[in-house]
Amino acid sequence: MILLFSGSITLSYIFILHKLQDTQKMEHRYTIHEITPFTRDWSCKIQVVDKIRPKISRDHRVNFQTTIVQDENEDQICIITYGPEVAHYDNLFKHFHTYLISAAKVREPSRFAIPMHNFEWVLDTFSIVEEVIENNEEESMLPLPSRLNMVSFADIEKQIPGDEFDLVAVVANCGTMKYQGSENRRFQEAILIDDKKKPFLFTIWGELADKDGTELLQQLHRYPVIVAKRIAISNFKQGQRTTIRC
Prior knowledge:
alpha+beta, 2 domains, 37% strand, NA-bd_OB-fold
């Protein structure tokens, strides 16, 4: 009887200890809007929704990359990586994959940052990023984003230059690389059509044209359907056309 009673106490103690540890973990799990520069020992489950190609700072001293992520509420924030961390996290972060992030630096965005949130996160060698894999018994993957700032082709010309929106369209045609201005800025033009067969001229600039434009040309015979995120109207040669920031 004594042994059974003792074993019961031991099992109860282990159960309570595990529940306490689970509670402590939950207390440290925050959403994006709950995390500030004063938040300590936080972790957040996020999903990668966009990756901006690596760039060089204005003073040409360091390269950096911006990655846009969102949490379970689909609130979004920018993650910045610098120098040697750029290649590491560029390989680690995959579109629409889920990750647990902790020990990131939280700071106010610079005036050149993408207007996304009151703060931005910076990942370095001390940050902890763990990918949540499929069929994980302890952590579930976040569902695919349900929020798209969709604009119909009929309303594109009503957009204010600089405002960002999303498009879903079929690529009907795609031209070869062209160059514009004294700086020979690279761009590529594509004709998109929507579900009402309305066409629109779409322009891809810079490094995006080098990679994505080439891929569109290779897939053109299949009339690929694309989701273009964070695109904007710009004035060009006394007309309007959509352009992807790069």
